[in-house]
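Supplementary Text 2. Reproducibility record for the structural model of the 81-residue chain.

All settings were left at their defaults, and a single model was retained for analysis rather than an ensemble. We include the record here because the model underlies the residue-level annotations in Supplementary Table 4.
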Amino acid sequence: MKHRVGSGFTAFVLALLIGLLSGRGVAGDLKAGFAKVNITPPIGIPLIGSYGKPSESVLDDLYVRAMVLDDGHTTVAIVSA
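Retained model, structure tokens:
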């Protein structure tokens, strides 16, 4: 299943950037970092709700995504799974 970043999330990120950069008399550096990591449990892990029956296969991989913004004064991290 593929997901697209919605316009609401994009507006949130832009508002966050404007908030980070506003109110500062001097323009500074803005550092940004992005990551996507596969956190799918290995096959054989006991399943919750299946009386401890171990998993036998993977239908869809699980990912966690993160974005970190730093302007030298404030660091903000947004994480989604």
